[in-house]
Amino acid sequence: MSTRVLVVDDEEDLCEILQFNLEGEGYEVDVAYSAEEALKKDLKSYQVILLDVMMGKISGFKLAKMIRQEMKLSVPIIFLTAKDGENNTLTGFSLGADDYISKPFSVREVIARVKAVIQRTRSEGGYEGKKLTYREFELDDAGKQLIINKKVIELTKKEFEILYLLMDNPSRVFSREDMMNRIWTDEVVVMARTVDVHVARLRKKLGKYGHYIRSKPGYGYYLEHE
Amino acid sequence: MSTRVLVVDDEEDLCEILQFNLEGEGYEVDVAYSAEEALKKDLKSYQVILLDVMMGKISGFKLAKMIRQEMKLSVPIIFLTAKDGENNTLTGFSLGADDYISKPFSVREVIARVKAVIQRTRSEGGYEGKKLTYREFELDDAGKQLIINKKVIELTKKEFEILYLLMDNPSRVFSREDMMNRIWTDEVVVMARTVDVHVARLRKKLGKYGHYIRSKPGYGYYLEHE
DNA sequence: GTAAAGTGTAATCAAAATGTAACAACCATG
DNA sequence: CATGGTTGTTACATTTTGATTACACTTTAC
Fold first, then answer.
1. Strand C: which positions are within 7 A of a protein CB?
2. CA distances, B145 to each of B120, B156, B212 (Å)
């Protein structure tokens, strides 16, 4: 799942710069030039909202309050304020809070914040401690390990990601391309056969359960129906 | 009883951001844009007061003195100070269990402090000597030391914090970023490799138990399953 | 049944991640 | 203003993982 970010600011230049850079980081970026425009979006579909405090009729604060109080959304919000701070190097931390950045800010800084916020919400919400199960498999996301009948099986990152994908959507067939898109970042391009090799290694580690992962010739891989 | 917080600062944006975020944390937040305005409030009804040092006619310090000496209140005060190079004119300032944060700060930091202060005043008297154990490790939070088979091992602060984090969540994998965020809270940014070095030093002190701390390539560090 | 396409997997080399010593900066303390 | 302890960074050694290729084997299409 790609991470979606919404930028709400009436300065078009700024929006473009942010959009360009955040997209460069692999985020899917949407832009709104006013609070009204932002309200037309499906706000709950974003992982982070960057919000200018000073804007046309409806201020960023009002919008934030609407988002929180009326729409009852808990999307993390990062405020952009015009008060110029000097050098904001920042890394504070506390769970569940929004944040603010003073203009002028460096793009680097914004990206750092966005990453931090996403990181935080990831490890906070249902993501942490998430355990996927399929037959005798128990995939422990926090521990990045697989447990089969109380036995721990260590997986490499790629193996973990492949198994995670499959167990998250059992009985769905994933083409090699699907997997490449989901598991490998855009900059990295690998051969389709590479997927096969990883699946083979994963199967080997699964021992007698290896055949739970099945291949459908011409289509891809999937988990056998329970 | 809900926890009441008063924010006193002449920067309206900042006040709003703090109010918004603290309310998001479940606090009841009141705002005053000047010392005079603050004095009209029922100051003893707050559990914490966030106070800007630099403000109009009456400075934050003066207000604090009035609160402490004339009104004889012991409400915890957290000062917000403008960060200037030759700081520490503050260190001599000991009006009790107060705290101060330099601007520019991150909202997360403020919230963390507020939580800490409230926590502290709540559990006053009852000393919290939390002890974590994992296999033959016994981590004494009060003494900030590790005991293995009756033997005391002195740890540096960072070592202690890393071990504490791991022992508090055994078998969970912490990325270097996780650790940086949790352990280097203040406005310090360190390289990810710095975490590695600390882990290495910690392992060395743990001697033959060093391998209890394991690394998972691509993910981070965790405590070996017992 | 046979050819073509698709898949399984061992072996190999390259790349990434980790372990750690060494050094420099920092800081509290006497 | 030395001093020892702590901390952050770098550089290099080592380990682990990852990508590709080659060849054996299976499935599919006709």
1. 5-11, 16-22
2. 21, 9, 18
Predicted TM-score (pTM) of this structure: 0.60
Question: Would you say residue B113 has pLDDT above 80?
Answer: no
Query: Quick check: B10 contacting A, CB < 8 Å?
Result: no
Q: What is the dihedral of CA A205, A211, A217, A223, to 10 degrees?
A: -90
Number of structural domains, chain B? 2
Instruction: Read off the amino acid at residue B113.
Output: R
At which residue do the structure tokens 């900030």 appear? Answer: B144
Asked whether the predicted pLDDT for residue B61 surpasses 90, the reply is: no
Q: Which nucleotide has the shortest C1'-to-CA distance from A218?
A: C6
Residue nearest to nucleotide D8 (CA to C1'): B194
* End residue of a domain, out of B122, B148, B183: B122
- CA-to-CA separations, A54 to A11, A83, B23, B84, in angstroms, rounded: 10, 10, 21, 27
Cβ of A196 less than 7 A from strand C: yes
Closest partner CB to B20 (pick from A64, A85, A88): A64
Check pLDDT > 60 for residue A92.
no
Residues of B in contact with A65 (CB under 8 A): 20
Chain A residues 120-149 within an 8 A CB cutoff of chain B: 120, 123, 140, 142-144
Least confident piece of the model among A120-129, B40-49, B109-118, B187-196: A120-129
- A25 shares its domain with A106: yes
Residue at which a domain ends, from A122, A145, A161: A122
Shared domain check, B8 and B118:
yes
B116 lies within 8 A of chain A by CB:
no
Which pair of structure tokens corresponds to residue B12? 């309206």
Q: Residues A22, A113: one domain?
A: yes
Q: Domain containing A48 — which CATH number? A: 3.40.50.2300
Specify whether B112 is located in the same domain as B140. Answer: no
What band does A11 get if pLDDT is binned at 50, 70 and 90?
confident
Q: What is the CATH number of the domain that holds B164?
A: 1.10.10.10
Q: pLDDT of A165-207, one tens digit each?
A: 999 988 899 999 999 999 998 778 899 999 999 999 999 999 9
CA distance A117 to A6: 13
The two beta strands, A77-81 and A99-102, are: parallel
Confidence band (pLDDT; 50, 70, 90) for A71? confident
Three-class SS state of A116: helix
B107 interfacial to chain A (CB closer than 8 Å): yes
Residue B154's domain spans which residues?
A: 131-223
Distance in Å, residue B198 CA to nucleotide C22 C1': 15
User: A52 CA to chain B: closest CA distance, Å?
Assistant: 11
